[in-house]
Write a structure and sequence with these properties.
The complex is a heterodimer of chains A (287) and B (328).
Chain A lengths: L1 H5 L1 H30 L3 E2 L4 E2 L5 H8 L1 H35 L3 H12 L6 H6 L1 H5 L4 H8 L14 H25 L3 H9 L4 H30 L2 H6 L7 H10 L3 H25 L7
Antiparallel strand pairs in A: 1-2
Helix pairs in contact in A: 2-14, 4-9, 4-11, 9-11, 10-11, 11-14, 13-14
Chain B lengths: L7 E10 L2 E11 L4 E5 L6 H9 L6 E6 L2 E2 L10 E4 L11 H5 L1 H6 L3 H14 L15 H13 L5 E5 L7 H18 L2 E6 L2 H7 L2 E6 L2 E7 H6 L4 H7 L2 E6 L2 E6 L4 E4 L5 E10 L3 E8 L4 E7 H6 L7 E5 L6 E2 L3
Parallel strand pairs in B: 3-8, 3-9, 6-7, 7-8
Antiparallel strand pairs in B: 1-2, 1-4, 4-5, 9-10, 11-12, 12-18, 13-17, 14-15, 14-17, 15-16
Helix pairs in contact in B: 4-5
The chains are: A mainly alpha (287), B alpha+beta (328).
Protein name (chain B): Putative spermidine/putrescine transport system ATP-binding protein
Pfam family, one (chain B): TOBE_2
InterPro entries (chain B): AAA+_ATPase (IPR003593), ABC_SmlMolc_Importer (IPR050093), ABC_transporter-like_ATP-bd (IPR003439), ABC_transporter-like_CS (IPR017871), Mo/tungstate-bd_C_term_dom (IPR008995), P-loop_NTPase (IPR027417), Transp-assoc_OB_typ2 (IPR013611)
């Protein structure tokens, strides 16, 4: 026994064992299960274990799939652009314009306050605000900006994107703020010493050095938006669809094999997107 | 590379942070083309002074003149100064060449021209083969030379160095300081070097400016500041001195100007407390009647002709001309 423990290789494997067990049980096994089920056969009233490609054939044969995937990418792209814009600005302000650390921490915590409530509640609270007779419409009408209530405020793509941006901007702020705080302040002075203007410093020093943070935030936001279904359902009033809703509809119809096939394709799509993103920026130094 | 030589002058320059005064009405004239060291303990205001000259810290009061211009309120790049930062502050995402060419890029100089100019600068600091490396891939000494090249490419009239050698190991420090000195003489521009190491200042400087408590304690050529300290602070900070309280007042005397004699034969009686062999010299510490610690640096051969041990009573001797009266 002592001899076995003395062997360094075995000791290392033993130390890694708990994590391996957890990952295998809760990550690898479920994914394998989904892949297996995606090849099963399903009829209206039964699910038959099998190895057939019909779920995938149906998925790739349907024009709905392409439309929904495209819509998912659209949500991801627009949300990404907006959260990046807002997130970068907030992080920049916190990291470079707030002088004392106390205030930085205080304002940073302020950003996290919305996260003290659940996603669903934050989403639902938009409904009375954006509705036909909601606060936004009545305020705009009383100011005389509009004559009739705006219909597109709620249950529209606008509402979906608004909710996404609201929910996920913090996931952009945190990693960008984190990378910015690691930028040596003397680099900014050195740039100024070399005659760089504020915009030049931003473009030539801060943005290149913040890239890893931007990339981590991008991965968070893109994966969250692509995997989401509840926000789209609530905020579009069931009028728009993304891949998540496709899967949840299948599940509610007990069409598990079809849902599993869609999930596998979504997983692969997201992995490919992340793979492409990681080609651009090396995030290893951030981890 | 020739640059017009310009005098740098501080006119009662003051820096206040809230109620604390970091630099208190400092006035000094720096000779053009000289190597000057601002020397002092941490928190004495030397770094604030340098940063005000560089333009990275606003001047609360007073003016900074370079040539005939008042540069106190100009942005850093318009002053004719360039700064080399303590940790070099190289841009980690840019190659060595891009780092050196950074200021030219900011000015909108086209890529081939700035590559050529950066190449010339790298040649000056002997780094030509490393132009495509990233700063991370360089040693400390190489990084420092990149920082030097980056500062010099703006053709400054005054180069400001903020503790440039403190990040290097002792061996490299001695080599780099020789290179700094050589470079300054080649370029003929003023170097203003902040340090807290008196050995560094003595080795490098034409002129040493000793600062303490936000003011200049003493300024002058290196030999003068070392041999004739004006205040007790300067005497102790420069090292190699004893401060003696005699009936006529306080005096500084170099440790190697004190000799040992048999008890009662010297000017002051003392009991040896420690003997330390230092190779060429032996450092003998003794305590006098009035409980003053005095160190005598005795040449090795002289000491071992009449060796002493801790506990021995001896007399301390010196020439009166070696005593320097201290103001405080």
């Amino acid at each position: 026994m002592e001899k076995i423990l003395a062997n360094r290789a075995i000791g290392g494997w033993l130390m890694a064992l708990p994590l391996v067990v957890v990952l295998v049980l809760f990550l690898v096994l479920p994914i394998i299960l989904i892949v297996v089920v995606s090849f099963w056969q399903a009829t209206e009233f039964s699910i038959i274990p099998a190895f057939v490609w019909e779920n995938y054939e149906f998925l790739f044969g349907s024009p709905v799939t392409y439309r929904v995937f495209l819509n998912t990418f659209k949500y991801a792209a627009i949300t990404w652009a907006l959260t990046l814009g807002i997130g970068f600005t907030v992080a920049y302000f916190l990291a470079f314009h707030i002088r004392t650390q106390t205030w930085q921490i205080a304002l940073f915590l302020l950003c996290t306050i919305p996260f003290w409530t659940s996603n669903i509640i934050r989403m639902i609270s938009w409904i009375p605000f954006l509705g036909r007779n909601g606060i936004a419409n009545s305020a705009l009408m009383s100011w005389g900006v509009i004559d009739a209530p705006l219909e597109w405020l709620l249950f529209s793509d606008f509402a979906v994107i608004l909710a996404f941006v609201h929910l996920y901007t913090l996931f952009m702020v945190v990693p960008i703020f984190n990378t910015m705080m690691r930028i040596d302040k003397s680099l900014i002075e050195a740039a100024r010493d070399a005659g760089a203007s504020g915009v030049q410093i931003l473009w030539n020093v801060i943005i290149p050095l913040t890239k890893p943070g931007i990339m981590i935030g991008t991965i968070f936001v893109v994966t969250l938006v692509m995997g989401d279904f509840i926000t789209v359902r609530f905020m579009s009033g069931s009028q728009s669809a993304n891949v998540g809703r496709l899967i949840s509809n299948d599940i509610s119809l007990l069409a598990y094999p079809s849902a599993a096939a869609t999930a596998v394709i979504l997983l692969l799509t997201v992995l490919i997107v992340i793979g492409i993103l990681l080609r651009f920026v090396d995030i290893r130094k951030e981890l | 590379m020739t640059t017009a030589k310009a005098d740098l002058e501080l006119v009662s320059v003051t820096k206040r942070y809230g109620k604390t005064v970091a630099v208190n009405a400092v006035s000094h004239h720096f000779r053009p083309g000289s190597y000057t060291c601002l020397l002092g303990p941490s928190g004495c205001g030397k770094s604030s002074t340098l940063r005000m000259i560089a333009g990275h810290e606003s001047v609360s009061d007073g003016s900074i003149l370079l040539g005939a211009r008042d540069i106190s309120n100009l942005p850093p790049a318009k002053r004719g100064t360039a700064m080399m930062f303590q940790n070099y502050a190289l841009f980690p995402h840019l190659s060595v060449t891009e780092n050196v060419a950074f200021s030219l890029k900011m000015k909108g100089v086209d890529a081939p021209t700035r590559r050529k100019a950066a190449g010339e600068m790298l040649e000056l600091v002997d780094l030509t083969p490393l132009g495509d490396r990233l700063p991370d891939q360089l040693s400390g000494g190489q990084q420092q030379r990149v920082a030097l090249a980056r500062a010099l490419i703006t053709r400054p009239q005054v180069l400001l160095l903020d503790e440039p050698l403190s990040a290097l190991d002792p061996f490299l420090r001695i080599r780099m300081r020789a290179e700094l000195r050589k470079l300054q003489q080649e370029l003929g521009i003023s170097f203003l070097h902040v340090t807290h190491g008196q050995d560094e200042a003595l080795a490098l400087a034409d002129e040493i400016v000793v600062m303490n408590n936000a003011v200049i304690e003493q300024a002058g050529p290196a030999r003068q500041v070392f041999n004739a300290p004006r205040t007790e602070f300067v005497a102790r900070f420069m090292g190699g001195h004893n401060v003696l309280a005699l009936t006529e007042g306080h005096f500084a005397i170099r440790t190697d100007a004190i000799g040992l004699a048999p008890a009662t034969a010297g000017k002051l009686d003392a009991q040896i407390t420690a003997v330390e062999y230092q190779g060429t010299h032996v450092s003998v510490t003794a305590r006098t009647i009035g409980d003053q610690d005095v160190t005598a640096l005795v040449a090795e051969r002289a000491f071992f002709e009449h060796p002493n041990n801790p506990g021995d009573r001896v007399g301390l001797t010196w020439e009166d001309q070696d005593l320097h009266h201290l103001t405080t």
